[in-house]
Model the fold of this input.
Amino acid sequence: MAKEKTLNIQECSIWTDAQKMLEKAERDGIETAWHRLKQQTPHCNFGETGVCCRNCTMGPCRISKKASVGVCGADANVIVARNFGRFVAGGAAGHSDHGRDCIEALHAVAHGQTKDYTIKDEKKLFRIARELGIETEEKDVLDVAKDLAAEFFENYGSTKNQLSFICRVPEARRKLWDKLGITPRGMDREIAEMMHRTHMGCDNDAPNTLLHCLRTCLADGWAGSMIATEISDILFGTPRPHKAKVNLGVLKEDHVNILVHGHNPIVSEKILEAVNDPELIALAKEKGAKGINLAGLCCTGNELMMRHGIPMAGNHLMTELVIITGAAELIIVDYQCIMPSLVQIASCYHTKIVTTADKARFTGAEHVKFEMHNGLEQAKKVVRMAIERYTLRNPDRVEIPSDPVDIMTGFSNEAIIDALGGSLTPLIDAIKAGKIRGAVGIVGCNNPKYKHDYCNVNLAKELIKKDILVLATGCVTTATGKAGLLVPEAKELAGPGLAEICGLLGIPPVIHMGSCVDNTRILQLCALLANELGIDISDLPVAASSPEWYSEKAAAIGTYAVASGIYTHLGHPPNITGSEVVTNLALSGLDDLVGACFLIEPDPFKAAEKIDQRIQQKREALGLK
Done:
């Protein structure tokens, strides 16, 4: 995979471990995402602004000064709205299909179709069932699980007028959604309708299309993603605070190194079980290793770290670099955010890539299908593969570039409320007193268009200085962890009020709440606070941000945050700027409709100031100094 030495490595990433691996990539002749970005630059202006339409074969059409409408007569506003609708439908589909996999797992456990998976948090199972109106008195655990799985399956169909977890939404917000006609119904129904509306000859009114964008994304936030989080807790355990470690230093030179990557804990939980099997550990030692080391990448890594303290090797832009260390025997993936390049880079080393889901095969990778009845068997098979790869490792090509950094993880809503003594009252009192002036969820991705993690880290640092609590999920977790913000000692970097609260509770000023789907923990926390205060979510001094986002899922997340009443910052806009109607609606018009809108700001310091101003406005409206 030879390539020209064209990178300014210091400008690619803020991290020493990433920079060292990029230098090694240059020496080894490996092409990375940064090299490929250069090859693709400059990007197509029609695509970037969203004015290219290929929804039928009368085109493709592109809007310009020469041609203000497509062959069918659609103008820039309609084309941009259609494209954005399909974009967020893709993101909502990704998260909702993850949620469906979790429901199928719960169904299999409840109906005795698997011995490999069990219910780990029975209390949460019963609590969620009661919350949704399911009878639990004198019922067996598995009978309650059957009823809950059936209830959740209904969220994917067309027979309901609203989703199960709408019961969590503040009343004022529910009335607003009903008034606007955007109350989400079935998950699959909204996605299918989005695809139908954007077919040629259907919805040709841009604002109307965008309203259904909100509805589709709300179904993701309040069903697909929320269901995935709650079932994962029920099946694998609700996270509690504990310590873990992050960065490439979690790899071990004298161990078999296995990395899990993707989003679905159904696979990674069984890999964790298999690496602790005494027979497999003994086999690893027979092959010359001191043991088996499991580490995470991206959101599957977040899942294991939240529940079990398994170390995190890196976020999205570190996934190629972990192979370049020369120390990774095997990467096992499920789906989402997995670069096809991993297979090509792995072929330059001894690393094996193993896929597990039929919906996410990769040419050149070995496929080992995981199903509910054979999860542990397949996990042991994969671990054996990794052990065999250890004997092929070339010690001269191994370079582990740093020491790991300590973090604190495991902050589910249940853990937060327990830490507050079983009530949100202490948190509300701290907000009223101004010791915590507000909260911001910083979530999501990396994008090689930005200096890796520069925006993620600096935004978090600036906000906590202003006594604003930061809630982190997804790839931002590794960024803030490596920056030393996910430990109680980081209170020294916070403002005096937030530092005082962190000191009293023994928590960091940046709280790790999980993976991408676990953004719904933040959504639920906002709803709990609003319901406790008798106000709407849009009245709270809160905001959301995804400074370095890249994916359809991130756009869906940002849209459901705004539609839920949360002011949301993005480092760069979606591909909508070719339409003034769509852009103006996103940046201001939605504020009038749903009480929140998007902020676009690539500079994390300017973004922090604007978010701070918004939080101050919300505090003043609530009568808080």
